[in-house]
Write a structure and sequence with these properties.
CATH class: Alpha Beta
Largest sheet: 7 strands, parallel
CATH topology: Rossmann fold
Number of domains: 1
Order of helices and strands: HEHEHHEEHEEHE
Structural class: alpha/beta
Helix content: 25-40%
Number of helices: 6
Oligomer: single chain
Radius of gyration: 15 Å
Strand content: 15-25%
Distance between the termini: 11 Å
Length: about 180
């Protein structure tokens, strides 16, 4: 049992809302591995896929593009993109390689954090930042657990000024479950 599986086992009595920005075939495998483990550990969950939401609703797609532009300009403003269920005990961002300055995972994360008070977990992820202060998103004191899927990401996050409410862990990619 790896650290992420242990985390899921510890939260088996809670209701999670899983969030994914969508993506490619690799992201589908990551999602499938996560769902396998959530079911295995009896974790209740609702899954939200931003790509599916904005594929059905052009207004949400436009809001997402505007949020990205706002983020690139360093602005704090942005639109709500996903409706997190009120009964969610924890918000879990699915793993992958989208928490970086290239892709737009931080945009989705920031807008979700601004509108929802629940603790946040990021499943095994590759991180890379030159300009984004990801750890700063958690200075509101909420509990956050960030899983890294390789040592380079862990070292990057360990080098950031991290408040005590942010926990860092390593675990393999959920696609491998």
């Amino acid at each position: 049992m790896d650290a992420f599986e242990e985390f899921l086992r510890e939260h088996s009595g809670e209701r999670l809302c899983t969030v994914t920005p969508g993506g490619n075939h690799g992201d589908t495998l990551i999602h499938m591995g996560l769902i396998k483990k959530l079911d295995e550990y009896g974790v209740g969950y609702t899954s939200l896929n931003l790509e599916e939401v904005y594929g059905r609703d052009a207004v949400t797609g436009l809001k997402y593009v505007l949020n990205i532009a706002s983020w690139k300009m360093g602005l704090e403003a942005g639109f709500q993109l996903l409706q997190i269920p009120a009964d969610a005990d924890l918000i879990l961002f699915e793993g992958g390689g989208y928490m970086n300055d290239i892709w737009y995972g931080p945009v989705l994360l920031r807008q979700t954090l601004k509108r929802n008070p629940q603790p946040v977990v990021v499943a095994p992820q590759s991180y890379w930042f030159e300009s984004t202060d990801l750890i700063g998103y958690f200075r509101d004191g909420r509990r956050a657990t960030l899983f890294c899927r390789e040592l380079k990401s862990l070292e990057l996050l360990q080098g950031m000024d991290r408040p005590p409410n942010v926990d860092l862990k390593t675990s393999g990619d959920t696609a491998l479950y």
